[in-house]
Every structure is written in structure tokens, then in C-alpha cells.
């Protein structure tokens, strides 16, 4: 689970047989136990893209997939998740709405 970081890139590709298919690429951001941000690249192909096409930066999603780990020439580890299924848990607008509610509750508690 994580928040969408940046834009979701939706593109059309062509396979070796000349057949077109859709690809959605994006990153999610999580925080580890020390509050450090961890970014993970994600890719979905074909019919797996239909639930991702309208995601926006900040949306909170749950993804399931296969993780591929690679190490670059500088020794840094990179992870990419090939998405098998995904679910939008909260849209960015819902998250903002809840934050406003929390702030008003906090203000009320401080006044008491």
C-alpha cells in the first residue's frame, strides 16, 4: 500500500506481432519505520491498466504483483512491481477531506 508519487503514465505499445496493448507506469511512496520515504516503481500491462488509468498523485492504493529487484552500476537497489491487481483505497480528494476533519477535531480538543 502506498500513495501515488507523481503522474501515472498511460501509453500504448506494440508487441512483436504488431498487436497494441496498454501500459501504465507510476511510482508509489511509503514510509519505513524511521519515517524515510521509499519509492517503488510499478508497471501494469493490458487489462491490468483499466483500474489505474484515472489515478492521480496522492491517491492511496493497494497493489499486488511480482517484485523484480535490480542493482544499478553504482550498487543502488531498484524495485519494480509488475501489477497483477490493484485497488484504490482513497482518492486524493478523500484524503484531503479527512485531513480537514482531523484538523477541526484537533482545534476543538485544544479549545477544551
Description:
By secondary structure, the chain is α+β, with helices and mostly antiparallel strands. The chain has one domain: Nucleic acid-binding proteins (OB fold (Dihydrolipoamide Acetyltransferase, E2P)), CATH 2.40.50.140. It is 18% helix and 54% strand. It is built from one helix and five strands. A five-stranded mixed β-barrel has the order 1-2-3-5-4. A hairpin with a 5-residue loop joins strand 4 and strand 5. It is globular.
User: What class, by secondary structure content?
Assistant: alpha+beta
Helix tally? 1
Architecture per CATH nomenclature, i.e. the level-2 architecture: Beta Barrel
Name the strands of the widest sheet in spatial order. Answer: 1-2-3-5-4
Q: Into which percentage range does the β-strand content fall?
A: over 45%
Shape: globular
**CATH-assigned fold name:** OB fold (Dihydrolipoamide Acetyltransferase, E2P)
Query: Can you count the beta strands?
Result: 5
Helix content: 10-25%
Protein name: Single-strand binding family protein
Organism: Eremococcus coleocola ACS-139-V-Col8
How does the SSE layout of this entry go?
Layout: E1 2-14, E2 20-31, E3 37-45, E4 60-71, E5 77-90, H1 92-111
Parallel strand pairs: 3-5
Antiparallel strand pairs: 1-2, 1-4, 2-3, 4-5
Protein name: Single-strand binding family protein
Organism: Eremococcus coleocola ACS-139-V-Col8
Structure, briefly:
With 112 residues, the chain is an alpha+beta fold. It has one helix and five strands.
List keywords for this structure.
112 residues; 5-stranded mixed β-barrel; alpha+beta; OB fold (Dihydrolipoamide Acetyltransferase, E2P)
Amino acid at each position: 500500500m502506498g500513495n501515488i508519487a507523481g503522474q501515472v503514465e498511460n501509453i500504448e505499445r506494440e508487441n512483436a506481432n504488431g498487436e497494441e496493448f496498454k501500459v501504465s507506469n507510476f511510482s508509489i511512496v511509503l514510509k519505513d519505520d524511521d519515517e524515510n520515504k521509499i519509492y517503488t516503481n510499478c508497471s501494469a500491462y493490458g487489462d491490468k491498466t483499466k483500474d489505474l488509468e484515472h489515478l492521480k498523485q496522492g491517491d492511496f492504493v493497494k497493489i499486488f504483483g511480482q517484485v523484480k529487484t535490480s542493482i544499478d552500476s553504482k550498487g543502488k537497489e531498484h524495485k519494480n512491481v509488475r501489477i497483477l491487481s490493484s485497488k484504490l483505497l482513497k482518492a486524493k480528494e478523500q484524503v484531503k477531506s479527512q485531513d480537514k476533519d482531523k484538523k477541526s477535531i484537533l482545534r476543538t480538543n485544544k479549545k477544551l
